[in-house]
Amino acid sequence: MSLTALRESIRATRDVIYMNTGFTGPSPEPVLTRMREVFEKEASIGPASAEGLAQTRAIGEEARQVVASLLNADVDEMAVTHGTTEGINVAIYGLDWQPGDEFVTCNLEHPALATPANVLEERGITVKRVEVSADASSDEALELLIGAITPRTKLLALSHVQYSCGLKVPAKQLAEAAHRVGALIALDGAQTGGQLDIDVKELGVDVYAISGQKWVLGPNGTGAVYINADVQRRLSPLFTTHAVADARVMPADGPGGGNPMMRFRIASQSPALTAGFTTAIGLLQEIGLEKVEAHCSALGDRLRQGLASIPGCGLTGPARGEGTCGLTAVTLEGWAPPQLVDALWQRWHIAVRAVNFPPATRFSTAPFNTMEEVEQVLEALKTLASETPLPGTDGGSH
Q: Most distant CA pair in the chain: distance in Å?
């Protein structure tokens, strides 16, 4: 599989300049084919027949093996989830929070982290929301976040890449800082899984959750979470299910010990969707995650560079350096983000997203996007920079 072959296998690329992968990515044809095959087999043999159940178990185990290889984790440190939010919440709510404990996060976070932070605060836990500028450099973000960590910090929880502005935080250095005071670190990788070449062992993080439907290009309702083997013993299951009841006591170490991550399973999953998730990861691995990351970053660099020459065009996130990636948040003078979303779609079939904090229009330069598409986007923005939006257009449908 090459980047060109990946693009050719995605139907949406034929008629759309699709730059909203940070919301949901379009699935390649091999992913759709795999899901159809599993759905058809389920229909023919019955999902809960002996053969149907065996298929579900095999697909689940395959998924854990593949996602473990994606993140360079041990298979017994991986669980397949319904998305990033589920994985990150398993870690946050699984800790034994006590009065005086500190939860450190930042002001830019997605609701997946912002909401549990609010809940913990309601329960009497000290929550520190570090004020990090959306256009901060990697070093600036690091200094601010490290400055908030104290010996009372129990968990540092952040998005590896901030969804609203594309700011990438220095995960390895943050993990080292957290561990120096005995704190844990959990990263929301919704915008990194499938975009960056991630090695959880190299980063030294304790928890890392990814999404299946974004940069991985798999189906909605899929994802995975890594929990370091030593940290698993510090977490309690979020909910009780049959799987949790059967595996609540940690199995003995060694062969035949079972799957320790079953303790954290919340609900059953569709084997067809899980198979699609696995297939999507496999396609990216065939290309090589180093190549994928370099491609997404190069397109983002060109987009940001081109924006600098368009009058009235600006960025809310970082413009250059280690804090950037394939996610770029754009402002255009005179245009509210929803208006810009609508205009780009109606006139050029360019699919992007409006974000609220800071207000901007977000572009995702994904593995299947091309430099030619970036140039077309820049031309479209240059055209709109010389116009004013029609009254009453608000982009609410997007």
A: 67
In angstroms, the CA 47 to CA 56 distance is: 8
Cα–Cα distance between 178 and 328 in angstroms, integer?
28
Distance CA 321, CA 232 (A): 35
pTM here is 0.94
For residue 366, which of 1, 7, 5, 2 has the smallest C-alpha distance? 7
Please tell me the total count of domains within the chain. 2
Q: Do the Cβ atoms of 276 and 31 come closer than 8 Å? A: yes
Strand partners, 208: 187, 226
| 280 close to 27: Cβ distance less than 8 angstroms | yes
Q: What is the pLDDT of residues 354-375, one digit of tens each?
A: 999 999 999 999 999 999 999 9
Q: Which DSSP symbol is given to 141? A: H
Q: Where are the beta strands (DSSP E) in the chain?
A: 17-18, 78-81, 102-106, 126-130, 153-159, 184-189, 207-211, 223-227, 313-315, 327-332, 350-351, 353-356, 359-364
At which residue do the structure tokens 């510090």 appear?
234
- For tokens 């980047």, name the residue: 3
Structural tokens at position 152: 């009372």
Measured in residues, the chain has a length of: 398
Give the pLDDT band of residue 258 (cuts 50, 70, 90). low
User: Helix and strand tally (H, E) in the chain?
Assistant: 14, 13
Render pLDDT for 32-73 as a digit per residue (tens, 0 to 9).
999 999 999 999 999 999 999 999 999 999 999 999 999 999
DSSP-derived pairing of the beta strands 184-189 and 126-130: unpaired
pLDDT band at 394 (very low <50, low <70, confident <90, very high): low
As given in the structure block, the two tokens for residue 274 are 């899980």
284, 319, 335 - which closes a domain = 284
Residues 146-163 have pLDDT tens digits of 999 999 999 999 999 999
Residues 239 and 379 in one domain: no
> Phi-psi category of 68—alpha, beta or left, where left has phi over 0 and alpha has psi -120 to 50?
alpha
Domain stops at, among 256, 284, 312: 284
Residue 395 lies in a domain: no
